[in-house]
TrEMBL record:
Annotated organism of origin: Anaerolinea thermophila
Places the protein is found: Cytoplasm
Protein name: UDP-N-acetylmuramoylalanine--D-glutamate ligase
Residues that bind ATP: G116, S117, S118, G119, K120, T121, T122
Enzyme class name: ligase
Mur ligase central domain: residues covered: 114-298
Function: Cell wall formation. Catalyzes the addition of glutamate to the nucleotide precursor UDP-N-acetylmuramoyl-L-alanine (UMA).
GO terms of biological process kind: cell division; cell wall organization; peptidoglycan biosynthetic process; regulation of cell shape
Length: 463
C-alpha cells in the first residue's frame, strides 16, 4: 500500500468522489489541495463535510500554478481530460488518478467491477444483493460493500473493510479512461453510443471502457456479453478466465449463462445447472433479463452458491429511477425511468411494455444519434410529450405526424412539470405513462436523480 504521508496531492472537483478522496488522503497524512471552479458560497456544504482536516482550498477557477510541487493529480468523474489544468499536469508528467484507481490499489478484499453503456447500476445492485445472501448462507459476519459510480465512493469505507469481505463497484467510462488498475472480476455488459460529447468518438469511448480488462491477471475473471458485437471485439483482451452471457445457449461448452424456455441456466466446467425461472425476476424488459444473466455469470465467477443467486434474484426489487413504478392515476400506470439519458436506454424502456404508451422524452443531447429512437416511437408510442433542449431533435427523429399512425399526438412543453400535466390530459385507462427521456437532465436539473424525484413528486400531486 502506498504511503501518502507528506505527498502533495491536487484533487480537482469537490463533488462526492472528490470529497471522499480528499478525506482519505488527509487522514493518511498527505498535503491535499482541493480545487473547484465553484465559489466558496456554492461549496459551503462540501467545506462543512471536510471541516477539521488539513486541506487547502482553491476555488472559483483552475489556476495552473497550483500544480507546482504536486506529486499526484486526482480527478472527480465530471472533470474532462481536456481541462487546461489537467493538460498542463500531463505535460509536466504528473500522474493522474481518481478514487476508483486509489481504491483498487489499496483494497484488502476481492473486488468485482461492472461497466457498460446501460444496466450498470441495476446489475451492480443485484450482484450486491446476491453477495449478501452468499454471506448469510455461509453464516459469516463478512460484509458486502457496494459503491463506486453508484451510491458512495468505496474509498470512504476502505479502512473498515476486511480481507474476506467483497466489494462490488460500478465503473463509468469517465473513471476508467485514466485507470491503470483492474478489478479481480471485471464485467462489460454492453457497448452502445454514449457520452460522445465527452469522449469525442465511439472508438475513444470503447477504449475507456476496455480499461476494466487491461490490467487484469491470469488468475482474474472477465464476464462479457457475447450477444454484443462491440463487446465480442474485447474477447482477445481477456487475460484469465472468461465467462460469457447471452440470451441463447453458446455454440460450445464455454462457461456461460443463457436463457432457454423460460428459465436461466449456468454452464460451467462442462456442467449445466438451472438457476431460476424468468417469471420470478421482479424486473421488466429484455434488458433486465440481460442484466440478470450478467449477474448470474458474475456470481459464478465469485463462487456464490446457486441458492444465494436464487434468493438474491427473488428478493431484488430494482433500483430507483429505472422503470420505477410511481402510481396508478387516471386508469394509467406511471413509471419513472429518469436514468434513460441516452436514446438506447429509452428504447429498452419502450420495449419493456406492450400497453399503449404516453411517453415523456427530451432533456439535453449528448451528441448521440436519435433516429432509431424516433423509429421506435413511431412503432410503440400513442402520445408523445416532449420537453427540454432536445425536444426538437426528438421531434425531427420522429418526423411529421401521419393520420392514423403513431404517435397520434405530439406536444411540446418547456419543462418536465408541464410535461407531466400534459401527459395527464392524454391518459386513458390501460395506458402506461413513461418518463424515459433519452437525454440528460442538466438542462433543468442537477442530475437524473433530481429529475426522477421531481417527476415522482409531480405525478403524486395529480388530483
Amino acid at each position: 500500500m502506498t504511503d501518502w504521508a507528506g505527498k502533495k496531492i491536487l484533487m480537482i472537483g469537490a463533488a462526492r468522489q472528490g470529497i471522499a478522496l480528499s478525506r482519505y488522503f488527509a487522514n493518511k497524512g498527505a498535503k491535499v489541495i482541493l480545487n473547484d471552479r465553484r465559489s466558496d458560497e456554492e461549496l459551503t456544504g462540501a467545506r462543512e463535510e471536510l471541516d477539521g482536516l488539513e486541506i487547502s482550498w482553491v476555488t472559483g477557477d483552475h489556476p495552473i500554478e497550483i500544480l507546482d510541487g504536486v506529486d499526484l493529480v486526482c480527478l472527480s468523474g465530471g472533470i474532462p481530460l481536456d481541462l487546461p489544468l489537467v493538460q498542463s499536469a500531463v505535460h509536466r508528467n504528473i500522474p493522474l488518478s481518481n478514487d476508483s484507481q486509489i481504491f483498487l490499489e489499496a483494497a484488502p478484499c476481492p473486488v468485482i467491477g461492472i461497466t457498460g453503456s446501460s444496466g450498470k447500476t441495476t446489475t451492480t445492485a443485484l450482484v450486491g444483493e446476491i453477495a449478501k445472501h452468499h454471506f448469510v448462507f455461509k453464516k459469516t459476519d463478512n460484509q458486502v460493500w457496494v459503491g463506486g459510480n453508484i451510491g458512495n465512493p468505496l474509498i470512504q469505507d476502505i479502512d473498515r473493510m476486511k480481507e474476506d469481505d467483497i466489494a462490488v463497484m460500478e465503473l463509468s467510462s469517465f473513471q476508467l479512461e485514466i485507470m491503470t488498475a483492474s478489478p479481480n472480476i471485471a464485467a462489460v455488459l454492453n457497448l452502445t453510443p454514449n457520452h460522445l460529447d465527452r469522449h469525442g468518438s465511439m472508438s475513444k469511448y470503447i477504449s475507456a471502457k476496455s480499461n476494466i480488462l487491461t490490467n487484469q491477471h491470469s488468475e482474474d475473471v472477465a464476464v462479457l456479453n457475447r450477444d454484443d458485437p462491440r463487446v465480442r471485439e474485447l474477447f482477445p483482451e481477456v487475460k484469465g478466465r472468461q465467462i460469457t452471457f447471452g440470451l441463447n445457449p453458446p455454440y460450445n461448452k464455454q462457461d456461460s449463462t443463457y436463457y432457454k424456455r423460460g428459465k436461466l441456466y449456468l454452464q460451467a466446467s462442462g456442467q449445466v445447472a438451472k438457476v431460476i425461472k424468468a417469471e420470478l425476476i421482479n424486473l421488466r424488459g429484455t434488458h433486465n433479463l440481460y442484466n440478470t444473466l450478467a449477474a448470474v455469470a458474475i456470481s459464478a465467477a465469485a463462487r456464490f452458491s446457486l441458492a444465494a443467486i436464487y434468493d438474491g434474484i427473488v428478493s431484488f426489487q430494482g433500483v430507483p429511477h429505472r422503470l420505477e413504478f410511481v402510481r396508478e392515476w387516471g386508469g394509467a400506470t406511471w413509471y419513472n425511468d429518469s436514468i434513460a439519458t441516452s436514446p438506447e436506454r429509452a428504447i429498452a424502456a419502450l420495449d419493456s411494455f406492450d400497453e399503449p404508451i404516453v411517453l415523456l422524452a427530451g432533456g439535453r443531447d449528448k451528441d448521440l444519434p436519435w433516429e432509431t429512437f424516433g423509429e421506435r416511437i413511431r412503432q410503440k408510442v400513442d402520445h408523445l410529450v416532449l420537453f427540454g433542449e432536445a425536444a426538437d431533435l426528438v421531434a425531427k427523429a420522429v418526423g411529421d405526424i401521419q393520420p392514423g399512425a403513431r404517435p397520434f399526438t405530439v406536444d411540446r412543453c418547456e419543462g418536465l412539470e408541464q410535461a407531466v400535466k400534459k401527459a395527464a390530459e392524454k391518459v386513458e385507462p390501460g395506458d402506461v405513462v413513461l418518463l424515459s427521456p433519452g437525454g440528460t437532465s442538466f438542462d433543468e436539473f442537477s442530475d437524473f436523480e433530481e429529475r426522477g424525484k421531481r417527476f415522482r413528486q409531480w405525478v403524486k400531486e395529480l388530483t
